[in-house]
């Protein structure tokens, strides 16, 4: 394909099977158009799109990356050789494998307690829960998205037997995380704080259907604006700053903050925030709940393009 020349050309990378109901980025389209940008929406694996003819690629709704993870990371590295990529390919490689949570926990971030189960290993779930004193457990793959490959279970009965069969099957092809099941997700949901260009933008809360734990709208969950305390915002901000300065992908000092990021939190039984995900690649930004966030993101992206 050819995008031509003149003006500013920005690709918002997506996937070929994006559901029709996904419209959250429309405020961003409007903000970028207001800056005179021409927008393109190629699937990340579209071999016919020439990434060298655009001024920047913003990774947005590439929500099938976990099914072809190595290919996706290779794509990001290839695109970065042809144009500006946000966030950078080193961030993509680091943040799409949830082992980053182990690194953050070692640096003092309040991350949900986790046992890391290697692909090809065997685990006795009953024994692990007994050792940890967990009444309920939660399993999810180290590389995954949209609740793919997740399982909650009790420490006894059919629930435990089914979870054991589940993890035995999953460990054939996947490394997994074993965590305590934080039941407050069912009532308080999952809370997110979003950042643009190093600044806090807004917060949302994602609430699953009654009795469910899946907070993605793919599974019927709802979302709403949320207000975190100044202390909670500072906690999330400290995680973003820590990542920019200390993370394994920071091969050279960062001139700019990361263009965007989303910190996802659950509450433990005491109401304290526990980090469950740090989304630096393709997070939903819930722009419908942040009146100024789309403008902030567009302005920061355009400035980076103009400076390049």
Descriptive keywords:
single chain, 308 residues, alpha+beta, Rossmann fold, Dna Ligase, domain 1, D-amino Acid Aminotransferase, Chain A, domain 1, 3 domains, 5-stranded antiparallel sheet, 4-stranded parallel sheet, 9 helices, 13 strands, 23% strand
Describe this structure in words.
With 308 residues, the protein is an alpha+beta fold. 30% of the residues lie in helices and 23% in strands. It is built from nine helices and 13 strands. The chain has helices spanning 26-34, 69-80, 89-95, 100-106, 125-132, 157-170, 185-188, 230-246, 293-307; strands at 8-13, 37-40, 56-59, 84-86, 115-117, 136-141, 151-154, 176-180, 190-196, 199-207, 222-226, 260-267, 273-279. A five-stranded antiparallel β-sheet has the order 11-10-9-12-13. Helix 1 (26-34) packs across helix 9 (293-307) and helix 2 runs antiparallel to helix 3. Mean pLDDT is 92; it is low at 1-6.
List the helices and strands and how they pair.
Elements: E1 8-13, H1 26-34, E2 37-40, E3 56-59, H2 69-80, E4 84-86, H3 89-95, H4 100-106, E5 115-117, H5 125-132, E6 136-141, E7 151-154, H6 157-170, E8 176-180, H7 185-188, E9 190-196, E10 199-207, E11 222-226, H8 230-246, E12 260-267, E13 273-279, H9 293-307
Helix pairs in contact: 1-9, 2-3
């Amino acid at each position: 394909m050819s995008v031509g020349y003149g003006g500013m050309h920005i690709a918002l990378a997506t996937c070929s099977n994006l559901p029709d109901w996904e419209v959250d980025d429309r405020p961003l389209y409007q903000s970028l158009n207001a800056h005179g940008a021409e927008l393109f929406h190629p699937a990340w694996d579209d071999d016919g799109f020439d990434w060298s003819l655009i001024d920047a690629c913003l990774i947005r709704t590439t929500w099938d990356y976990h099914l072809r993870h190595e290919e996706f990371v290779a794509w990001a590295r290839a695109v970065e050789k042809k144009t500006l990529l946000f966030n950078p390919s080193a961030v993509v490689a680091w943040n799409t494998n949830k082992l980053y949570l182990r690194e953050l926990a070692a640096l003092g971030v309040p991350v949900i307690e986790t046992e890391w189960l290697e692909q090809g290993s065997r685990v006795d779930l009953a024994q692990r829960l007994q050792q940890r004193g967990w009444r309920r457990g939660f399993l999810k793959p180290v590389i995954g998205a949209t609740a793919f490959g997740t399982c909650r279970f009790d420490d006894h009965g059919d629930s435990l037997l089914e979870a054991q069969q589940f993890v035995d099957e999953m460990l054939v092809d996947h490394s997994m995380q074993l965590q305590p099941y934080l039941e407050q997700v069912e009532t308080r949901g999952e809370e997110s704080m979003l950042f643009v260009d190093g600044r806090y933008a807004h917060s949302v809360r994602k609430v699953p259907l009654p009795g469910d734990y899946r907070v993605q709208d793919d599974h019927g969950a709802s979302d709403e604006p949320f207000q975190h305390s100044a202390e909670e915002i500072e906690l999330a901000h400290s995680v973003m700053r820590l990542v920019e300065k200390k993370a394994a992908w920071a091969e050279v000092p960062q001139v700019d903050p990361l263009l965007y990021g989303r910190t996802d939190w659950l509450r433990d039984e005491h109401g304290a925030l526990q980090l469950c995900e740090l989304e630096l690649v393709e997070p939903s930004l819930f722009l419908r709940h942040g009146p100024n966030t789309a403008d902030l993101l567009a302005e920061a992206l355009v400035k980076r393009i103009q400076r390049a």
